[in-house]
Amino acid sequence: MATALRMGYVGCGFMAQKVHIPNILALDGVELAAIAELRPKLGAKVQERFRIPKLYASHAELAKDPTIQAVGVSGHFYAQGEIAIDLLLAGKDVFMEKPMAISIEQAERILDAERRSGKRLMVAYMKRHDAGNVLVKKLVADARASGEMGKLRFVRNHGFCGDWTAGLDVPMDKTDEPYPAVQPRYPAWLPEKHVNGYLGYLQQYTHNVNLVRWLLDAGGDVKVKAVELDRERGYFGVVVLEVGGVQTVIESGAVAFHGWEEHTQLYFEGGWIRTEAPPLLLRNVPATVEVYRGNTPAKVTTHTFPEGGREWSYKAEMRHFVECVSTGAPFRSPASDTIEDVRTFEAIYRRHVEAAMVT
Ligand SMILES: NC(=O)c1ccc[n+]([C@@H]2O[C@H](COP(=O)([O-])OP(=O)(O)OC[C@H]3O[C@@H](n4cnc5c(N)ncnc54)[C@H](O)[C@@H]3O)[C@@H](O)[C@H]2O)c1
């Protein structure tokens, strides 16, 4: 019998407690040997609740443990990238929450550390593990290869979001300890007054850019054609991209909504493929899969429940990480790919900031 992968986990906050630690503990082929948390009271509570053998006071301590092969990280959106660099250089394969980085400069330093270490970083984009999205990607590739639906002309991704936690009732330990200080290095062109807008937009729409690039098999072939975000928050609006040569719009916004409103529709000359996303944390409910064929006599719309649709996308994502580290198979979202999301984000927001300065 193959031995289980020995994993550590850094950061015991929301995503760790609600999602990733329970998922690691529920998987075969992996054992969670240690956690690290800068806030000692919080770390101790989480260690006790999940019965984790070892608690380290920081990621640097955990990194020195030679028995740990791979580490998951969910920290502050800037700090986690710096933590990933240290872990890679200490010889660990790393699973890290999105976004990969808050600047291209940071993303390039992370990639450089990955190359020098010989270890690998997977950035967690659970939408790529949603069984509905997996089926949509296949249907799009098949339709493009066969030409049966004509040319793919346009993609619309609409994400007005809502309640992303979707009633997830996993208990969570809290603490009165102060949050660890972080000094993020933002892109040099980003004025102070646009920092919150940039981070808010980045946090959410990195998912959408990452998904569309993957559905279209576009790699880094993304051009930013137009950006029209509201001047007040820098959040509501439309971004026009060319993704793998296909005109694509990303519509963004947030209203008080207790459900979730997000869809991606890929328009071919002869019909469309459309998927509606579940709220981010909703368990065991996949994205929907609809295909309309308008260029056939029957003009049929089909809805398919995807194979594997009852597995939580976040659990499938962690399973993928464990399997890839154990077998050497490639990650579905390696750092060499996710740097393209960071690049796209800088380009989108830089255009928004420049437009806001001249109007
Ligand atoms: N994929 C998704 O759907 C999704 C959803 C929400 C958040 N996220 C991402 O998850 C990340 C984490 O979010 P969160 O809400 O869990 O954060 P959080 O702030 O609740 O938790 C982070 C924890 O890390 C600890 N920490 C920081 N530096 C540390 C270090 N050097 N060593 C050990 N512990 C350290 C902090 O004390 C804190 O407890 C964010 O980057 C966010 O973008 C992803």
Descriptive account of the structure:
The chain has 359 residues and is α/β, with parallel strands linked by helices. It has two domains: 5-125, NAD(P)-binding Rossmann-like Domain (Rossmann fold, 3-Layer(aba) Sandwich); 128-314 and 342-358, Dihydrodipicolinate Reductase, domain 2 (2-Layer Sandwich). It is 36% helix and 24% strand. The strands form two sheets. The chain has an eight-stranded mixed β-sheet, covered by helices on one side. Helix 2 links the parallel strand 2 (30-36) and strand 3 (54-56). Helix 1 crosses helix 8 (313-327), helix 4 (79-89) packs parallel to helix 5 and helix 5 runs antiparallel to helix 9 (335-358). The chain is globular and about 65 Å long. The mean pLDDT is 97. Bound molecules: nicotinamide-adenine-dinucleotide. Nicotinamide-adenine-dinucleotide is lined by residues 10-16, 36-39, 42, 58-59, 74-77, 79-80, 83, 97-99, 124, 126, 180, 203, 280.
